[in-house]
Amino acid sequence: MRTSNHLIGLMNFLTFLASIPILGGGIWLSSRANSTDCMKFLQWPIIVIGVAIMVVSLAGFAGACYRNTFLMYLYLWAMFFIIAALIGFVIFAYAVTDKGSGQPVFNRAYMEYYLQDYSGWLEERVTTQSYWSKIGSCVRDSHVCGKMRKFVNGAPETADMFYRRHLSPIESGCCKPPTACNYVYMNETLWSIDGGLPTADQDCVRWSNDQQLLCYNCNSCKAGVLGSLKKSWRKVSVINIVILIFLVIMYVVACAAFRHNKRMDNDESYGETRMEKEHPSRIQF
Length: 285
Description:
- There is one protein chain.
- By secondary structure, this protein is mostly helical.
- It has helices at residues 2-35, 43-66, 69-96, 121-127, 129-141, 159-163, 169-174, 203-206, 219-278, and strands at residues 103-104, 111-112, 151-152, 155-156, 184-187, 190-192.
- The strands form three sheets. The protein has a two-stranded antiparallel ribbon with strand order 1-2. Strands 3-4 form a two-stranded antiparallel sheet.
- α2 (43-66) packs antiparallel against α3 (69-96) and α3 (69-96) runs antiparallel to α9.
- The chain is elongated and about 85 Å long.
- 32% of the residues are buried.
């Protein structure tokens, strides 16, 4: 029985450790939401799940140490719902970030992003003007475009050097005009519209050399935000899936150990009853 209690305590301690990467992933997404991805709602469910796992594992650890049946029941039921919530959240994250990716451009190292490649819930959110105004302001305030400036031997990089750069989705979508506009490169965020060819892409009209505007209202910028969000979420989802598998294994072992404890307690009670019947007390009242 002690061995089972020790095993349950060890499982809860390992579960507590497993909550740290989940919580860390949520905090990392939160930091990116405030500086890069600018989507400030998807990180909270995973932070809540991470904190819940941490608290519940401590309750289970206390229940195992003090043989508190109520805490152990609470731990097992709470972990069941937490695992179910984590499974649902992983499926949701993959579903909403499933569609859309960067498209290669001839003679360019960077990708370009198109809003029509994305669909579903996230795409509907970024196309809502009231919501996009907040996201666009966040992208602008992050100064991601200003940080693109590079100098080689004290001189700005040339067009050929810029075309060989691997830009992030937001840099590609928000900080430069689409390649289809055929604008002439002057620097990373300054392009001459002289000589541009007519195109049906409305982002060419939305582009501005005003450093406070650039392409922040372009569909390519919205697509770039979604592309950046997808990359961030896929990284965190891989960690979540690994931790989820680990949590399921820990949960199954903890259930088995808890059932073993209950059986041992029942056997002890049955054994004590038999001893009392076989060797009754000589003192009778």
